[in-house]
Every structure is written in structure tokens, then in C-alpha cells.
Amino acid sequence: MYFMMSRRFNKTKPSDFGLIETMNKGIFYRDSDNSYWEKIQLIDLGWGREVGFFKLPKLNYDNLIELVMHSDIEDDFFGSISILLDEYPREFLALLERQFLQNINQKRLRNITDILSTQLIFNSEYIKNQSPDINIDLDRWKKIVGE
Questions:
Q1: Taking the CB of residue 136, how many other CB atoms lie within 10 A of it?
Q2: Which tens digits make up the pLDDT trace of 72-98?
Q3: CA distances from 93 to 6, 81, 84, 140, 145 (A)
Q4: Structural domain for 11, as ranges
Q5: 142 pLDDT higher than 90
Q6: b/e string for 59-71 if b means 16 or more Cβ within 10 A?
Q7: Residue 13 has what DSSP assignment?
Q8: What is the pLDDT of residues 12-58, one digit of tens each?
Q9: Which of residues 137 and 27 earns the better pLDDT score?
Q10: Cβ distance 113 to 146 under 8 Å?
Q11: How many domains does the chain have?
Q12: Which of 26, 60, 96, 104 lies in the 20 to 30 Å Cα band around 20?
């Protein structure tokens, strides 16, 4: 597990996730596996960006793609999509376009595009203001999600 996140803000404090504050601001410790986590706002599932944490060290692009395409852990799926949209939107879009053209893993791609369509609906202001790469390619994103 690389991500932990709330659903409808059912968890808001680090302790709700079994995390303990450390001396480093924004870094938390999980005693059960001796891991360190950083707080982050994750994907918006319809009621605002969810409270979440990612395990340190932070995953790179290739690791995030591996999670989004193959993980059966819902928090990892949502968390990796969130980071990809925030930090690698153009690369993620190009990968999705290639996957659709090659007709690879269509069921997983449909799951991804279902989540992406909610981001275009619920986060239109966020996209306009915070994600210029997504905004520039908005027509391509809409095509991916079938709008």
C-alpha cells in the first residue's frame, strides 16, 4: 500500500489513519510497519479533494503508472491517478491515448476514464486555475473520457 485516503472526509486526522506525528512537519510515522507518510490532498470523488497520505519515499512516474494500471488496492488506484493528474498530466494523457489506440487493458482504462470524467466535472475550476497543462489539453482529455 502506497496511499491512504478518506472517503467523503470520513477520516481527517493523521491518527484516523493510524499515523503518528514526527518532529518533521507534515511527515507521519506508522508504527505497524515502521513506514513514513506525507499528507496530501488527493482526488475529488465529488465532495472535494480527499484527505490522504502517500508513503515515503515518493513514487516516480513509472511506479505511479504501474499502480494505476495494475493495483487492486483502491487507495493506490485513486492516489496514483491524483498524483499523475497533479504532477504528470501531459505524460499521463499521452499514455492513455496510446493505450486506447493499442486497445490494451480496456477494462482498466474504462475504470480510469470513469474517475477522470469526475475530475473534469467536479474540478473544472481547479483545472482552470491550478493545472494549466490539463486545461491546455482539455479537448484531448474530454475525448479520452468520452465527452
A1: 12
A2: 999 999 999 999 988 888 898 888 888
A3: 26, 11, 9, 8, 11
A4: 3-145
A5: no
A6: beeeebbebbbeb
A7: S
A8: 899 999 999 999 999 999 999 999 999 999 988 777 889 999 999 99
A9: 27
A10: yes
A11: 1
A12: 60
The number of residues in the chain equals: 147
Pairwise CA distance, residues 25 & 28, whole Å = 8
Cell numbers that stand for 111 in this block: 475504470
Query: What is the average pLDDT across 117-143?
Result: 62
What's the CA dihedral at 115, 120, 122, 126 to 10 degrees?
120
Match 466535472 to its residue by C-alpha cell.
121
Grid cell of 106 as nine digits: 480496456
Grid cell 486555475 is found at 129
User: At a CB cut-off of 8 Å and minimum separation 6, what does 29 contact?
Assistant: 19, 20, 21, 22, 35, 36, 37
Answer yes or no: is pLDDT of 116 > 90.
Answer: no
Q: Tell me which range, 74-78, 107-111, 134-138, is most confidently predicted by mean pLDDT.
A: 74-78
For every residue of 21-60, DSSP letters joined together read E-SSTTEEEETTTTEEEEEEEEEESSSSEEEEEEESSPP-
C-alpha cell at 72: 487492486
Q: What are the residues facing 53 on neighbouring strands?
A: 4, 39
- Within a 13 Å sphere around the CA of 4, how many CA atoms are in the beta-carbon half? 21
